[in-house]
Fold this protein.
Amino acid sequence: DRSTIDCYAYWQKLFGSVVSLELTNLYERLARVHARQYQLIAFCPIEFPLEDDSFRYLNMDFQKEIDRIIRACLADWGLQIKTVFVAGETEVRVRQVKLRLSRLGVARQAKS
């Protein structure tokens, strides 16, 4: 899903320099509190060419900056322990996430 961390990264990139520091700090605190509640964060780095879906920015420099902001949040907010960095084709990524979920016991809970 598009997580709190993802939304915060886009906020920082698009609005961080044009809104008040107070509002940006408030949003960061709320995002940080929410993100700490996650059991697992699956981070998918940019590996494939971006496809025009009439929604996302196709500018690779923009996407790299979003990637950098997300990585900084994971580090600054102490979320690396909850993060699995997945790579490869979609099926490979899904297997990596399922494996990590099974180690957390989440997969069994979801089936019940």
Q: What stands out?
A: Helices lie at 4-15, 21-35, 60-76, 90-104, 106-111.
